């Protein structure tokens, strides 16, 4: 399971048995650049999804959802392309957003995509917002983050 994100606050929300939610101020320049890079490269994700490359697996998209206060960015996994729409299953238990829940199958709103990722031979491709969060951690915290999330970065 991957961590989700919430805008408009700067504390981390730890959850027992669930991935942490990393809260990010909505004016965080690095995070906003990462989300823009992800949006601008969705075609790369789609091409990989459709490639049938056996080295590519665990396709996921992070989508922005309206929440009580601000927005929450939640990972959607088991991505499929149906006609021109991405479909998938909500992979995180929302903390703030109330219109979706863990396990819901949804159609992804392309205008609300904030990140995407997949594994290439077990290594993360994409994951723009994850990299921003990870880069701000100490080396020890990065190792713990990687271990908790099962991630290997190129």
UniProtKB/TrEMBL annotation:
Matching InterPro entries: DUF2314 (IPR018756)
Annotated Polar residues bias: 1-11
Region span, Disordered: 1-23
A Pfam family the protein falls into: DUF2314
Domain DUF2314: 29-153
Name of the featured protein: DUF2314 domain-containing protein
Top-level taxonomy: Bacteria, Pseudomonadati, Bacteroidota, Flavobacteriia, Flavobacteriales
